[in-house]
Each structure stands twice: as C-alpha cells, then as structure tokens.
Design a protein that fits this description.
Elements (H helix, E strand, L loop, with lengths): L6 H25 L1 H5 L14 H5 L5 H15 L16
Length: 92
C-alpha cells in the first residue's frame, strides 16, 4: 500500500480516483446513448461487409475474397477430364 505523509494527501488521491471513475462513466454513457435509448439499438456495423458503397464497388473483406477465390479455384480444376499418360519401362 502507498504510504502518504498525511491524511490530506490521501483524501486528494481518493478525490482524483473518484473523478477519473466518474469521467470514464460519463464517456461510456455518452458513447452508448444511442444503444441505450433507441428501441432495438445496437452497435453500428463497421465491418467492410456492412458498407453499402463498398459492396456496390465489389470490395469485400479479405476472408470473403479468399473464400470466393478458393471456390473459384475448385471449380476451375476438373479432375474428370484428366488423362494419365502411360509410364513406359526404362529399358524398352
């Protein structure tokens, strides 16, 4: 525990801590007013997939683009038409 020289310093430290807690509480309530007061309020979707303008331009997040490219790669390879060449013996 911190040793204070006198009671006055201890009271000042407690005041500072309480003011900091009050300030953080006010900030959190300020950030959450729309969520708390609006019926059905929720955090805004800030992900790339939630932006209409990016969707119109065909821009997706990395994971979505990777999933799409993996699906395209699987479609392009058709193993039904692959022909295996016959292996000839080395001495003939």
């Amino acid at each position: 525990m911190i040793n204070f020289a006198n009671e006055k310093e201890e009271i000042e430290m407690i005041k500072i801590i309480l003011m900091a807690i009050a300030l953080v509480t006010i900030a959190m309530l300020g950030l959450a007013t729309q969520i708390l007061l609006k019926r059905g309020g929720k955090f805004p979707n800030t992900h790339v997939s939630g932006n209409k303008h990016l969707i119109k331009r065909g821009i997706h997040c990395y994971q979505t683009q990777d999933r799409m490219e993996q699906a395209n790669a699987r479609k392009e390879i058709d193993f039904k038409d692959v022909k295996i060449a016959s292996i000839s013996k080395a001495g003939k």
